[in-house]
Queue: 4 jobs
Job 1
Amino acid sequence: MRPLMASAVAMIPDEVVGEVRDRADVVALIGEHVQLKKAGINHKGLCPFHQEKTPSFHVNPQRRTFYCFGCQKKGDVFSFLMELQGKGFIEVVREVAERVGVAIPERPASPEEQARRSERSRLLDLNAVAAAFYRTTLAHDRAGAAGRDYLARRGIGDEVAATFQLGLAPDGWDGLARHLEGRKLSPDMALQIGLLAPRGSGRGSYDRFRNRVMCPVILPAGEIAGFSGRSLADDPETPKYLNSPESQIYKKSHLLFGLHAARPAFARKGRALLVEGNFDVIALHQAGFGETVAPLGTALTADQVEILHRLAPRVVLCLDGDKAGRAAALRAVPLLTAAGVDARVALLPDGEDPDSFVRKQGAAALEELVSKAQPAVEYFLDQAWFKSDRSADARAAALREAGPMIASIADEVRREMVIAQIALGMQVDARVVRMAMKGVASAPASIAAPVMQRPPSMLELKVFEILEDHPDLLAEAEELGIRSLLTDARLRDMYSRRLAGQSFLDAAPQELKDLVASRLLEAHYAQLENPRRVLLETIRILKSERLERDLDQIKVAIKDAARRGDSTLARELSIRQIETRKLAEDLKRRPEEEPR
């Protein structure tokens, strides 16, 4: 738990900061937040700072740095944690120092320094005080008896209860309010994050959570963002679950319950188990499924999918075996498929949820169910088509239902594979599947008809030829962002595979094998006196071509804005046109310099 009002350090000596940085294992620390795979001297994964389908985030253990070729964020382990967790430099250095065993010279924080602490930190501290109060109440012989009985009935042991920092909100109106008042903590801030609620008449506030088993929502770094409380009252008018309201520190669409405990198990188990409720998560951790997480009382969101995609090799949906659970799975599958997640669906028997199933049937039975989980697209087809009457109307309805899911897949190769899979499963021509997507607004225009593979750019292939003959330039090409200049998805895939250790020839798709072999095996650039200069000039031309394409697109957008009478947008686009044209002209005037 974060200590309340932890003492601050105005300045940490440079030599101490350097020692912390040198001792920190940058791959291990960043790897707690990003699923990293070794790629040559680097490790790479999906960037946590922007959404992407192909990994462009690299960690270099020798330089102890990270760099994203997609969004250009870069830095060391301190700047990574500051950016990801919204913390200050001093706070991050202290936390890393504690993990690597470096003592930080400390002095008490002055009143002025305490006043300058960020509001986010003060709100997190307030939640930490509340969580400690709830845990103390649960442990109390008399006051906590009902909560302990409830946990015992659900088979939750002390170790798992401690992992999830479970507590009990007492059955009274002002237990927490009086506790916070005694600690001289702000009731206004407690109202802001939903620990307290304002009284309907008169002044003052009361406890928002009462007579509930409290499940803190714990962030990966250990802070408590909010709470979910399960009612102990036998009253149909009382909501079973009550969650913290949205606030600066609690944004439920961005959070997953149990992630702090599940993250280490993702790589070990090779998967994440996604369930619906908090106590499903806790019960499965109790049963040995430490890779289990859940959304926070809402349908799965794109932000949550992005977190899972970064951290887990596979996601298995293990939702309730009723109509609502099947509907939730059908809603989740398009999100997971669009993000490129290797997703599966484990089918629970009707009327069972993961908690009840594992308690009745045991962990081995659940493991068998999960290991046999259906691929997500197959499940989608099974529900939308195979369980229908298979009439022409049912076929058309299933295709209309599948259209948005397919259209949302950005990767062209993956999209074509899904189209082929659906066409085969529904026994229709692939063109019929594409026709069903014509009305989908998010579908790229090109997917309404069969995709014709165009020849790759010879200039882009020239870069591969140079790198094949001079592999020592590969790292520099990566630093210059060559991936973003490749317009052909097949070449981008080849380049990614080359970074992972494959040769360009082995990485080439079947339709390009002959062309790639003929170009690379002739070693056109093996005898160059200055291969680096040739590479830089080729990259400069590719960047120039990209800027010209950007100018063409801006020109069309300006005409469209003018036609619609949107003068503000037209003016903004005109400014962007001037800036882009200047970049293009500057690039042409610097033929001998490195592309920028």
Job 2
Amino acid sequence: MILRKNITNLDNQVVKFNFIIQMLFAILVVTLASCLTEDDLTNPTSFVPIVVKTTEATAISPYSAIVGGELSAPQSRQATRGVCWGTTPNPIPTETDMKDQGQLGAFSFNLSNLKAQTTYYYRAYATNSKGIVYGTQQTFKTQALAIATIATTAITGITATSATSGGNVTSDGGSFIVTRGICWSTTPNPTITVTTKTSEGVGIGPFTSSMINLQPGVIYYVRAYATNTIGTAYGNQQTFTANNYATISTIAPSNITSTTATSGGNASADGGSSITTRGICWSTTVNPTVANSKTSDGTGTGSFSSSITGLVAGTTYNVRAYCTNSVGVVYGANVTFTTLSTVPVLTTTDVTSIATTTATSGGTISSDGGAAITAKGICWGITANPTITTGSKTTDGTGVGAFSSSLSALSPSTTYYVRAYASNSAGTAYGNQVIFTTSNVLSIPILSTIAASSITTTTANSGGSISSDGGSTVTAKGLCWSTAINPTINDSKTSDGTGVGLFNSVITGLTFGTIYYVRSYAINSLGTAYGAQISFKTLGLAIGQSYQGGVIAYIFKTGDAGYVASQTHGIIAAPSDQSTSIPWATKSSNAITGIAIGTGNANTSLIVGKLGVGSYAAKLCYDLTLGGYSDWYLPSQAEFLAIYQNSAQIGGLSGSYWTSTSSGVGGGAIKFEYSDFWWESINIPLRVRAVRSF
């Protein structure tokens, strides 16, 4: 009974507890219902919180970056989503922040106008009517400003002196490109500070540059460059070689004769420029050029053959192939060859100085036949065509050219046959045969006189030719002359050596306008012989002729002081003015001077005697030494008029000139001006032309 009662009480308590629980739930439902809108009741998920994620920043540059986020929980209304940022932590949205309307998923914004090398804080966010939700805060740092990024363009248009390149600026490094171009050098890694460069504008993008004034065949290094506020960036290095001279080789000579040969060349490369001419050149000296003998054998590359002509036998020649392009002339290797030899070519000199036992001959070797002359001379005998093995001979050295030989131990009144000879490796050759007969007695020399030439007022040229010494050595020879006929060595003479043959003489110390008689002379042991007499007249003096330190300006006439009928006298003017601005005197001299021709010298001495030292016209002339003469003076009025009237022949008279004639009026002097004479104050500076008399 008691147990059942207890159980009944327990059941009643459980019922009461359950009732209380149900009542509490009902009260909760009613309370929640009173807080929900109609939309909340119809869309039970709308009150689920918004979930926003901040994504990592990308495309970070000095001034920009891309930031964003992601909405990853359902929501019933369209939310506003965006990114807020700043340079301090936990940024909040502002009117200028990036935002848009969107649903679930990722979103991003491009931030611009940022500061370089700066740390930024940012958060994604989303808002709806229930409020704002932030993603996790993240940070990024903008890049620092950098040099540009540039690439160098490949080299094109290469010539011997120019080429084309350029570059492409793909990034300005965050700073405006203020200049760009290329730089180049013959050493690697050229820069704009030490090498040649171009300037091709500003900004990014491609550009083209031209290189000029290059050296042919030289390797160049090229880099594009771009400069911003940070510095200068360089592109990759390109290399190239400026077009070079062409390449050519010389073909060894063949088919060699005494006067011809065959050679040629092979132009294997044109050096980047068309070959406009080619051939071979040759000379007897090493490394001939196109300035020597040459051939012209077409154009372009390839092999060619050339004929060499006009050679001398037995001579060593140097040959080089050549070709020309726009860069210039280039040569192949120097190759030598020797033409075939022949016997020498020579003539025999006529016999001279024939005496009873001696005579003189010789020869002239015009060609050695292509081989060195090892012996030369003359051979003679009393039978025709003497040889070096059958008659007497001389030995007169080696080599080509003229030589003289003496015949000795001859017999008087005997006929001899003479031939010059010359020997080389090809053999012995003989000149033409000459015949002569020795004398039976000695005599004085035989000679002639050469006509006078190069005649001046005081000199002339002449000479003589001694064809025979008369059998005795000529110990003296020359010319003798006189104003009388048949001059001898007791008159004026020259001494022009000894021996026979031609000689020239210069006759000096002559008088102008005079007839002279001249004879050559030669002396041997028997006496003195004379050539035929000739005569000539020295040149006379004339106005305008250079003479005794100046120019003849006037020749005295009848009535002039100093005139002599049988002689030539006159006035010589200095070739140019002695001054263009000098006074007649620096103070009054009270000198009364002459006017007439012949008074200028005395005038000058009188003025200088009264005035003494100083800088004035008469003193300037008085002190002058010109052309080896020191007797110059200031011309008188009449003397100046005389030289002025011949100014066309002497030249240079222009302006106002002082004369040595005093005016006698107010202490002045006479000047020449505008083709007439005028009074002038003595302290006025005028021109001066000095004269002297002869």
Job 3
Amino acid sequence: MKIIIAGGTGFLGDRLKKFFTSRGHRVFILTRQPGQEHEIYWDARTLGDWKDYLEEADVLINLTGKSVDCRYNEKNRQEIYTSRIDSTRVLQEAVDQCGHPPKIWLNASSATIYDHSEQHLNTEANGIIGDDFSMNICKSWEAEFFRAENPETRKVALRTSIVMGNSGGAFPKLKAVTKLFLGGKQGSGRQKVSWIHIGDFCRAVEWIIDHAEISGVINVTAPQPLTNAEMMNKLRKRMKMPFGLNAAVWQLKIASFFLRTETELLLKSRNVYPEKLLHSGFSFAYPDMEAALKDLIK
């Protein structure tokens, strides 16, 4: 297949590139700073020569967007919003101009679209979507993505949870704080953590591409969310750490200020279930946290 990954130089894009090239597919990366083979310049806002690569592509994957691991000041809020909306909009313009557009377009979204929930398990069908900055970003992002229809292009929005891998994302930070004996619960510890192993993430993307009946929004999460306290306990045991100090909300607020991030990333309860993936027949290699940690920490 010919696969285009927009914003593909980060943690997820790099792993997808390696995953698909190892299977013999051709992967092209759209990036602001091309430097390697098959990397093409784009500014994620305006049409350019990069649009020619979408012609006769089998797959388009858009992962573009400023990281939410930052302070939510006005400048960062605007960049988080525009980086997602502008890139999705200009990709739509490019797809519209293709004589032979991509057969499938997968656009990043987030499991953060669902409201804080410690009890309600959010599926694609019954998920409760709330009203705050993060959720509204996701709603606007998906609305922009689904605004136009292309008969020849199947569209799928990936409501992805925390992706667990050693080469990026949240997991290396969780390991680091655990090594410093700070791997206790954060806040109440009751908040649910929805997650997925990086290997299952790549396999799920491949599965969605291969199964034409899957379209619309889909939860890309492992089937067993767990509480923050449970996750940190399992991580401590796997890393053979005898204890981990708990962190109260007030302590997290102070730490997040100095680390230039937000407490929401740790304290929001993301209780999400991959109903569509499971109903389509997808099988997780790492369905529970113990299996994931056993693979990631050796």
Job 4
Amino acid sequence: MKTGISLAVVFFASAVLLAAAEIYQPGSITPPEPAREFRGAWIATVANKDWPSAPGLSVAQQKAELISLLDTAARLKLNAVIFQVRPACDAMYASSIEPWSAYLTGAQGQAPEPFYDPLAFAIEEAHRRGLELHAWFNPFRVRVAGAQWYPSANNISRTHPEWVREYGGQLWLDPGEPAARAYVTRIIMDVVRRYDVDGVQLDDYFYPYPTLLGKGLDPFPDGASWVQFGQASGLDRADWRRQNINQFIQSIYQSIKSVKPWVKFGVSPFGIWRPGNPPQIRGFDSYANLFADSRLWLANGWVDYFSPQLYWSIDAPQQSFPVLLNWWAQQNARGRNLWPGLNAGDVGIKFPASEIADQIAATRRQPGAGGDILFHLGSLENNAALADAVAGEYQLPALVPASPWLTSSLPVKPILGGQPANRTGFVFQWAPANTNSPVAKWILQYYDTDYTWKTYFLSAGQRAQYFTFTPQAFSIRAVDRTGNLSPAAVLTKIVPAMNHAAVTGPAPNKSFWGSYKAQ
């Protein structure tokens, strides 16, 4: 922010009154609408990809690394992080159901010492920086291939081995087991109920990616659940598997909305639904091999946002980024948020940093798309060329797009007032007009002496702003949990200068709103 304005909360008792005519009055001008664009990045915890950098770090080191990542996100004007809280039936948070992750402490089931809750800490620090935090779950993976940690006593492979299948060196919950699906739903809803997350996201792992055996594909070993639950369904085995995932996706969406309707639910599936859709596309068939009918989830509105992993370049003829993005936009009949995933992690390996900048620009040109998610935040922190390319695209702050199907009612216009302070300055103060309507953040805008509006996003807890000068106009708007904006409360300047000789010392106990109040 420019010199002369601080985003620290002002202590009202330190204000200095000036014996001068009123310099602000309620204004009828309308500040410009803020930009709307989802700017997210994944924070991967599996195999210590992004955070923590190694298992068993001290709590102080873990916190410092996470703060550094969030500072990078804020510096680059991102507005959301997608934090992997459950890499493999484990927990990067305090859970009474699943064990602490070995990626955190080095031993599954071992809590951080001294104790802290990484998810609660991440939410607090993200919100402090104006970032949404979405909890990212891998729903059915129990153990990754090559994992060195030993399963704890409350690992699902030990408490319910009848739900678990071994496949390709991994352990996997069988989605064909209704009890296993209910268990994962319970895990997700436990986080939704106990933590102030802004969203929940599932990635592309439903049934596992198939392994090759000779010329064929190694079948997933779900014979027991097929015999018990599938054969009588009237479906063939592939359709039954897809039905299991369809029911799971719909159940998660409905469960979240029944508890916290404002929490957004998103899925980030493999970027190709089926080869040939659209005609030039070739590649892996996620419909046939992962049993993920992701187009159906989008078409039925079982998500609030949809982030297909479009990890190919713009010029790739058989997996073209803009061609696939356009096809997904055409499938989005219910107008859900479409925020594609970009492969930032391969900058410097498969393509230059300019590719990501070009993909951000291509997404902006695509009707029906409203932002991006970068995989992954660690690559932004560690790759200067990539960070510069992203910063070049995200030059001004942007608000997360609204989700009007969740609620269309707007927040009430805030109460705004203020008073002179510290010889030449002014302190503006505000509060929600309706305490029953939670505020997610504030949008502060002021008309500067260079005849332009400046826009800043503030955390929900901030209720005052001190200026060392008197802006021509000041506006505050509330943003609710689903991205809806209140009308603007505005004060406009009516006297160009103040009588500085009239300073009398510390202010007496004035009312909270001081001398000037917007209507």
